[in-house]
Amino acid sequence: MKWVFVLLFVACAVHVHLRGRVRHRLGRQLLDHSTFMAPINVLMYAFSRVPTTPFLDDPGRHFPELEPLRANWPAIRDEARRLRELQHIKAADGYTDVGFNSFFRRGWKRFYLKWYDDAHPSAAQLCPVTTGLLRDIPSVKAAMFTELPPGSELRPHRDPYAGSLRLHLGLETPNDEGCFIEVDGQRYSWRDGQWTMFDETFIHRARNDTQSNRIILFCDVERPLRLAPVRAINRFVARHLIAAGASPNVEGDRTGGFNRLFKHFYALRLKAKGLRERNQSLYYGLKYTAVALVAAFIVWI
Predict the structure, then answer these.
(1) 3-class DSSP state for residue 18?
(2) What residue stretches are annotated with the Aspartyl/asparaginy/proline hydroxylase domain (predicted)?
(3) Averaged pLDDT, 234-259
(4) Sign of the four-CA dihedral 52, 97, 63, 59
(5) Alpha carbons 88 and 80: distance in angstroms, whole number
(6) Do residues 170 and 147 touch, judged by C-beta distance below 8 A?
């Protein structure tokens, strides 16, 4: 029975790696968080009630409850502009955003509206229109304003969990082909008042090669699933695992358990980076030895 589970895990990990046209190098994929989430992600794909393609055409047809967001985009944009003027759309203060920490180094910024919970107190105070709209759409599990300034980029990556789909609603964009996101090699350029939805577990990247700023409303929308037990699994993982990634905008907002631990983990990561700079052979030798030991332990138990 143990070997059945091992083989199932390997099969799911291989499926996740080969899914789509764009793939990570095998060495990177072995250590990617999506590999460890592969069995549950394959379950999400298998029972999805919407297509499992990189982009989902016409989000409003699949998710009619989202239409108030598009209908009220000018009011949402006004609140986002006000936040930018106040410099609240920004990188995290310290190491309090494990999910997006690497993005800040290349210019990306954010302001959380909600994260698998009700609105942050700061968001409810500063963005009453947007948080009010989101409160009436329970399928939106997470939302934020995100900014991609001129010259910024997000390197190729995939998100770890397939229990949601990602919605981008253009608020203040360059309206130019030079500002784009690519999902599994398919390119989309943001436009004011227009939206797109995609599966963030495909490898994707973004760039702003224009001279204008880009601000969007970014939402994670619960994936519609067949069968009540599968929906229950998705909500359990979201409530007890994904929700632990909550990150504050200001003091007084909730910080999830993962982010409370992140600063301690990052101190170790900095030491590992220092070792990599001094001795790459030793660094990668230790790294892959650790992976092999973990795999051996799993097989042994």
Answers:
(1) helix
(2) 71-224
(3) 91
(4) negative
(5) 9
(6) no
Assess whether pLDDT exceeds 90 at residue 297: no
Handedness of CA 197, 107, 243, 202 (dihedral sign): positive
Chain mean position to CA 260? 19
- Do strands 186-189 and 215-222 pair parallel, antiparallel, or not at all (unpaired)? unpaired
> What is the Cα–Cα distance from 262 to 272, expressed in whole angstroms?
15
Write down all domains in the chain, each with its CATH number in brackets: 59-257 (2.60.120.330)
**Closest-CA residue to 174 (of 112, 216, 144, 220):** 216
Q: How many CB atoms lie within 10 A of CB 46?
A: 11
Q: Has residue 245 got a pLDDT over 80?
A: yes
CA distances from 239 to 166, 232, 235, 242 (A): 18, 10, 6, 6
More confident residue, 22 or 94: 22
Alpha-carbon gap, residue 33 to 12, rounded angstroms: 13
In tens, the pLDDT along 29-87 reads: 877 888 889 999 999 999 999 999 999 988 999 999 999 999 999 999 999 999 999 99
Cβ atoms of 201 and 159 within 8 Å: the answer is yes
Residues 6 or more apart from 57 whose CB is under 8 A from it? none
Q: For position 228, what pLDDT does the model report? A: 97
Cα 242 from Cα 107, distance rounded (Å): 24
Share of the chain above pLDDT 70, in %: 93
Whole-number pLDDT of residue 270: 66
Q: For 155, what's the count of Cα atoms within 13 Å in the CB-facing half-sphere?
A: 8
222 backbone dihedrals φ, ψ, rounded to 5° = -55, 130
Output the pTM of the full model: 0.90
Q: Which amino acid is at 294?
A: V
> SS3 of 64, please?
helix
